[in-house]
Amino acid sequence: MIADQTSVIFLVLIAVVVVFGGGVVVLSRRRSRPQPPALPADSPATSLTLNTDESESPADSPATSLTLNVAAPSPEPPTIGGRIGRSRSVFSTAFAKIRGRDTIAQDTWDELEETLLRADVGVKVADSLLSSLRTSVKERTVTTPSELMDALRSLMKSQLSVASRELRLDTAVTPNVWLFVGVNGVGKTTTIGKVGAARAADGVSVLMAAGDTFRAAAAEQLETWAERAGAAFVRGGEGADPASVIFDGIQSAESRGFDLVLADTAGRLQNKTNLMDELRKVRRVADKAAGEVTEVLLVIDATTGQNGLSQAREFADATQVTGVVLTKLDGSAKGGIVFAIETELGIPVKLVGVGETQADLIAFDGDAFVDALFD
Ligand SMILES: Nc1nc2c(ncn2[C@@H]2O[C@H](COP(=O)(O)OP(=O)(O)OP(=O)(O)O)[C@@H](O)[C@H]2O)c(=O)[nH]1
Ligand SMILES: [Mg+2]
Question: Which of 356, 358, 360 to mutate for ligand 1's pocket (most ligand atoms within 8 Å of CB)?
Fold first, then answer.
């Protein structure tokens, strides 16, 4: 329909140019979007330029130029494979090298172990994967390096087959409360911005509560994300009690009939007892407020390595974490920590952050993640 209109405008303009003997015509069309998510730098706007043959133009009239600037189409939703692609080659290269060997020898095992450890799966998970593979080789169900890699891939997938990764949003509850916790700088506030935008786009009414009262800038950062997502926003004064800001946010959401409160908290190290106690209080008070805490999401930076496991342990103990958000998986093929978190702690990874913009959030899929490490 829009394309038809553009064609009509195009033809009319050509006619005008022909009738009036030249000139430069520039047409711009930008698709209107309610929330313009920043386009990735590598998706330029489409520009089409048509020049008439100068030899046919009268000497005193410039060549006719018609430029159509069309905003690039919305990027395809990101995929794990697409986003960690840039640096995962270290793994796919190692796996491909093993696959290309003639036999399974000691150096095959060494290389395999090193690659798994580099992917951050941790010693325990690597040992369990390797010992299962050794058994298969002993029993001769696996005889070639290629079969070995296939067996590893399916073992890794089976380790990530948790019952459900769905985020709980109960329509009978007003409001659902999702609490975001984690150490400093992992991407809590950014993730709230992304989650809020995605839910608001689905028609869920969202309120963001600035429970990070440690710095004034933290509330302002969240407010910006709330504006972008079209979400309501509640904050307290600098240094206010985070639990009471979140409580007020929840009560306000209830009285205004909001579906979902996304509560931000200040980053804290998992070994700081007083700060972890503060978080316990946040959880307790949120439970006392209206609605129900239906998710406590621990945000972990994928590049953190095995330290992510001790973060998960301590935060789970303080707040009954229901899921993990693994951020910054773009540009990193690590994130093997998901194996340790899921197998050792039984906490499902629910979301993955693959960039800094609103659209850079993916629902975690274990199979796709393992495939991305291999392919
Ligand atoms: N590349 C990349 N950067 C991210 C991602 N998520 C967040 N970031 C960046 O990480 C930095 C910290 O993000 P914040 O959201 O402020 O982290 P935070 O956990 O709220 O930090 P504190 O509140 O200080 O504890 C920002 O520069 C974000 O843009 C991601 O998935 N990928
Ligand atoms: Mg923050």
Answer: 356
Q: Can you name the residues that pair with 48 across neighbouring β-strands?
A: 68
Q: For residue 318, which amino acid is it?
A: A
Note the pLDDT of residue 211.
97
Q: How far is the CA of 347 from the centre of ligand 2 (A)?
A: 22
Type of residue found at 348 = P
Contact 35, 197 (CB under 8 A): yes
pTM (2 d.p.): 0.80
Give yes or no for residue 333 having a pLDDT over 50. yes
Candidate from 115-129, 217-231, 326-340, 350-364 with smallest mean pLDDT:
326-340
Residue closest by Cα to atom 24 of ligand 1: 185
For residue 181, the ligand closest to its alpha carbon is 1
Cis peptide preceding 36, ω within 30 of 0: no
Average pLDDT in the 347-351 region? 96
Among 186, 190, 349, which is best to mutate for testing ligand 1, by the most ligand atoms less than 8 A from CB? 190
Determine whether the shortest distance from the Cβ of 356 to ligand 1 is under 6 A.
yes
Domains contained in the chain, CATH given: 2-70 (no CATH), 176-321 (3.40.50.300)
Per-residue CA distances from 279 to 201, 206, 238, 259, 298 (Å): 30, 22, 17, 23, 12
